[in-house]
Amino acid sequence: MEQPIPPAPPDPRASLAPLAGALLALPPSLGPVRVIGVDGHAGSGKSTFAGRLAEALGGAPVLHLDDVATHEELFGWTERLRTQVLDPLAAGRAAHWAPYDWVARRFGPERVLDPAPVLLIEGVGAGRRALRPFLARLMWMEMPREQSWGRGRNRDGRELSLFWDGWERAERAHFADDPSRPFAHTLVRQSGTGYEWSSGADATALRADSVTWSDEPAGS
């Protein structure tokens, strides 16, 4: 007797089709571009989500803030992002920027980013106050800080544990001074079938256990 073929696992990208359609319907926020910020704690799944959303958007470009930050400037990259990427796109021109090489500790070869209907900016700090005026939407990956950091540490291995110690202090300090979650339009959660999201004031209202607006820097 033949065994039944199990159903194929759900495609996470399929669940994002309605969200992609809603984003494409937004008015441009930076010249001809709709800039979508994807923020959340390190290790919360921002890169994977942004990649799948980009596919649902028909191949939208994704700018990873890990490529803009450096060892010395974990969060001090705002001016570089503005002059190299945001200002040219606002004028309808291609952006020319150089991603940072975390192994060689220097900026790599220049890349070109042409204006597109949607640009996803993904990374911790994508919803910071200096960027919010340029965003058509801000999304927050809804995962507790400790769980996110644990995932990140497991992913990167013990050899990067010292980096993670410094990162956690820096992220605490950043969100204590410049929170993102209170300003998010949409909260995104991973589910067994892909992603779920909720939008609007009720969905993104602060909870008592929110970790992005009341945290104090470590050691304070």
Report on this model:
The chain has helices at 17-24, 46-56, 78-90, 145-156, 161-177, 201-204, and strands at residues 34-39, 62-64, 95-97, 100-101, 106-107, 111-113, 118-122, 137-141, 186-191, 194-199. The protein is of the alpha/beta class. The strands form three sheets. It has a six-stranded mixed β-sheet with strand order 2-7-1-8-9-10. Strand 9 (186-191) and strand 10 (194-199) form a beta hairpin. Mean pLDDT is 86; it is low at 1-9 and 205-220.
The total domain count is: 1
CATH superfamily: P-loop containing nucleotide triphosphate hydrolases
Share in β-strands = 15-25%
**Distance between the ends:** 67 Å
- What Rg, in angstroms, do the CA atoms define? 18 Å
Strand count: 10
| Estimated helix fraction | 25-40%
How confident is the prediction overall: mean pLDDT? 86
Spans with pLDDT under 50 lasting ≥5 residues? 1-9, 205-220
Strand order of the largest sheet: 2-7-1-8-9-10
Report on the biggest sheet.
Answer: 6 strands, mixed
> Order of SSEs, N→C?
HEHEHEEEEEEHHEEH
- CATH class categorisation: Alpha Beta
CATH architecture: 3-Layer(aba) Sandwich
Shape: globular
Briefly note the structural class of the backbone.
alpha/beta
* CATH topology-level fold name: Rossmann fold
- So how many helices? 6
In short, what is this structure?
The chain is of the alpha/beta class.
